[in-house]
Amino acid sequence: MSSILTNSSAIASLKILRFVDSSLQQASTKVSSGLSVEKAADNAAYWSIATTMRSDVRAVSAVRNVLDIATNVADVAYEAMARTREVLADIRAKLVAATEAGVDKAKIQDEISQLAASTRSIAASASFNGVNLLDTDIHDLYEAFPVDRSATFPSAFVRNSDGSVSVGMTHVDQINTSLFNSEGDGILQGDPRSPKTIGGIRPYGDFSTPDIVNDYLPYYTSPGGAALISEEMPFSLIGGLESPTAIVFGIGDKISFDLTVDGDNPSQGLSAPLDPGSTAFNVSIDAAMVNSLGGAIHNATEMAAMLNTAFAAKGMGALVYASPVWRTPLDAPAYPDPVRYTIVTTEASGLKGSQVQISNFSSTVATGSLADKNAYGTLGSSFNLTFAPFKIYRDVSIDFTFGVNGEPTETHTINRSTVNAILGTTDGWINTADDMVTILKSLITRPNTIIETNGSAITIRSDPLDDRLNGAKSKIGFTNISVNVEPIPMNGLMDIDIAKYPGSVNASLYSVDAMLIRVTNGAAALGVLRTRLDKQADFADRLVDDLRSGIGRLVDADMEEISSKLAALQTQQQLASQALSIANEAPRALLSLLG
Fold first, then answer.
1. Ranges 182-196, 299-313, 564-578: which has the least confidence
2. Are 403 and 477 in contact, with CB atoms under 8 Å apart?
3. Helical H runs in 191-266?
């Protein structure tokens, strides 16, 4: 019986010792590894999460290394862009100096050429790790989609809520940074995006340099002019100069005629009936009227005064007036021509026409050119556009207003999508006058506006069946014309040559100023990129720290707790060993007593 009990005690002690040994082994492993979850068997859920997070740490660390490279690329590009801006400022200073009279433009051009060449070297050397944001090789730079003309850098590792992963990218649109592109169109190579005359709706502002500077007027209007008759006093040439011959009035001498103003112009295409205008009969100048002038009209100023007196006497003074022609020679004050004068309608009759007509003229004195005449005003409700093909680039937008005769104007926009939708094309080209007519007809909604081709030109006019105005009351045209990308340099930095083209100094200044603006904007964009990359790098560092901390909270052992547990287990091991020893000694002691 005692043997059975003794064996049972030994077995129990052995089991306890084995359990303690196993627990002690586990505690020792945790102490040596520092992990509470070292393998899946320790805690499958925590082990799986920690393994994924360790993989994320490696991925984020790799992105962090790439960010260092991208930052260096941005730094090199920014410094090169800043240096380019300094060179452009130097070139501008040279061009300003070239505006002074008497300077040697050839020597200044030599300096400009050297400075311009240095920008090539700066751009070519702005490379880091094979990446150059300033010297590019992009096909059709301005037509390429942003994704195709952008440099990209990995900037973030993202694990989505569904467990999928992706790499966030930072994009740098090189249209803002490319100084020189292999196919052209870089910031310093000239910008091709100007629509120039926009098919004829805006004229050149400076016809002497149309290919050097984007110098266009923001309007193109065709105002009408009031009807006038040009007249001359009798005159003779004395020493090559015109000298008026006085018109001397004796008793019974008289100038008389009928005067009509503001009748409709039959050649205007108006529907019948035509308004005959406002008429005064027997307008006359006689000897009594010129007594204040000593009985003679000596020059154009006096003739205009006599005519105005005669008009007033017939109640026409508010409707028509005579005036000497005022001439202004270069650098001289204006003065009245002694020979020439005009008779002009004020268009205040309330009629729609613009006309001055002298009929039934008679005179007993020599009056020079004064005789039966009829003149209509110039029509301002019709004009022609000289068409030239042009292209609307993807990011170009043209705004303008159109109006007739002072009516409320209508505002329109032409962009790539507008052109393609109207013409059924994809490339933004307006190749022919017919194409331009189609676009204008689609946009301009004013009723009774006729838009049609006239050979290679385009005619725009209001329908005379609807619009009877003539003279200064009539006006048609485009105003408030703007292009969103302008001002832009149409020629490149290397094309400047004020020695060969001395008259291009101001145009070159315009181009360099436009380049300076774009280079400054490019430097600003690189500065923003640098800041963004710094923030991404800082975030990546923090993310790695947070991931490692999270892993530690999941799988790291509590060393203080494990150490205490290890000490307890070692004590239990000693006690279990002693108990097993005692249990093994008991049978021997019993046998010795029985023996």
1. 564-578
2. yes
3. none
Tally DSSP H helices, then E strands, for the chain: 8, 26
d(CA 88, CA 69): 29
Positive or negative, the CA dihedral 316, 319, 325, 326 is positive
Q: In whole angstroms, what is the distance from residue 201 CA to residue 414 CA?
A: 12
How does pLDDT run across 382-438, given as a tens digit for each residue? 899 999 999 999 889 999 999 999 899 999 999 999 999 999 999 999 999 999 999
Contacts 24+ apart (CB under 8 A), 191-194: 191/142, 191/485, 191/488, 191/489, 191/490, 191/514, 192/142, 192/393, 192/490, 193/142, 193/393, 193/395, 193/396, 193/485, 193/488, 194/483, 194/485, 194/486, 194/488, 194/490
Domain ranges of the chain: 2-34+558-594, 47-193+493-548, 198-221+386-483, 228-376
- The CA angle 358-362-368, to the nearest 5 degrees, is 80
For residues 250 and 287, the answer to whether their CB atoms sit within 8 Å is: yes
Longest alpha-carbon distance in the chain = 190
Give the integer Cα–Cα distance in Å for 358 and 258. Answer: 6
Cβ within 8 Å of residue 574, ≥6 positions away:
none
What share of the chain has pLDDT > 90, as a percent? 53
Rounded-to-integer distance, Cα 222 and Cα 469, Å: 14
C-alpha–C-alpha distance, residues 535 and 419, integer Å: 42
Pair 429, 414: CB distance under 8 Å: no
Say which amino acid occupies 456.
S
- Closest to 545 in 3D by CA, of 57, 24, 185, 101: 57
Residue 549 CB neighbours (<10 A): 12
Tell me how far apart the terminal alpha carbons of the chain are, to the nearest angstrom: 17
**The tokens of 45 are what?**
């859920």
The second-level CATH assignment, the architecture, of 47-193+493-548 is Up-down Bundle (1.20)
CA proximity to 380, closest of 502, 225, 183, 578: 225
122 and 87 in contact (C-beta within 8 Å)?
yes
| CA quadruple 461, 464, 467, 468: dihedral, nearest 10 | 130
With 0-12 / 13-18 / 19 or more C-beta atoms within 10 angstroms meaning exposed / middle / buried, residue 121 is exposed
Pairing of strands 220-223, 475-483: antiparallel
Q: Quick check: 224 and 471 in contact, CB under 8 A?
A: yes
Question: What is the distance of C-alpha 11 from the center of its chain?
Answer: 92
Side-chain-side CA neighbours of 194 within 13 Å: the count stands at 21
Q: Count Cα atoms within 13 angstroms, Cβ side, for 487.
A: 19
Which residues, at least 6 apart from 201, have a Cβ–Cβ distance to it below 8 Å? Answer: 220, 385, 400, 478, 481
